[in-house]
Structures are given as structure tokens and as C-alpha cells.
Amino acid sequence: MNEAVIALCKCGESHKAYGVRFERIDSNTWQYTWAFPINEKAAKREGYDSTKINGNILPSEDYPGCPYCGSKYFMVCSCGKLNCNIVSPDETATCNWCGSTGYVSNYEGDGFTAGGDF
After folding, report:
1. Domain residue extents for the chain
2. pLDDT tens digits for range 84-116
């Protein structure tokens, strides 16, 4: 069985939290496979914000996208949290977790937080 974890993400349109399931497919690559609405407080109690994922991230062919806006891509903020890839016309984005605004660049595999999926 592949190692799997859940990461919290916030939708750039609805600003609601949702869970994203990631499966490790090799030592440096994770594939996101599933997304589901989740209560943010319950997710924190489950520890979905306690494990760090490092490496490349790729969508599975059948990844359904954000349950609120349908986006299949993420922005990883410097705070380590995931957001739907909602980018303004000037190519900036604002983190729905910490409020930071910045220019979007390619993800370098630096890592973000997640929790175990048991």
C-alpha cells in the first residue's frame, strides 16, 4: 500500500477549506488523487496540518479538483499552506490562510504541511 496523507487547501473563490489526498508514488513524487469538503476545525483535530510533504506533486488522471470551484491546481504559499490556483490578471495571488500576496512562480518541491490518512 502506498503512503497517503491529507493536506488542507483553501478555495480561492469560496475561501472554504477542503482536504486533498496525496499518495507517494516514489521517493520524491506525490500524486494528488482526491479532494473533499472538510470542516477546518475537524481537519486540524485529525492532524491534517502536521506532516510536511516534500518533493514533486502531480495530479492523477481522475483527480476531481476543488469541490467548490473545480480548479485542479494549487498555489503553495511561503507559509506552507495550499490554495487553489486562483491568480489575478497581474499574475499575483493572495494566500487564503495568511493573507500574503505575491507573484506566482513554479513550485520547487520545498514542501507544505499535511497529515496522515489512516
Report:
1. 4-116
2. 877 777 888 889 999 998 887 766 666 666 555
Q: What is the 3-state secondary structure (H, E, C) of the chain?
A: CCCEEEEEEECCCCCCEEEEEEEEEECCEEEEEEEEECCHHHHHHCCCCCEEECCEEEECCCCCCCCCCCCCCEEECCCCCEEECCCCCCCEEECCCCCCEEECCCCCCCCEEEEECC
Q: Cell 499574475, residue?
A: 91
- Residue 18's CB: how many other CB atoms inside 10 A? 21
pLDDT at 77 (0 to 100): 86
Q: Residue 84: what residue type?
A: C
Which pTM was predicted?
A: 0.83
- Residue 81: burial class (beta carbons within 10 Å; 0-12, 13-18, 19+): buried
Beta carbons of 79 and 98 less than 8 angstroms apart: yes
- Is pLDDT above 60 for 117? no
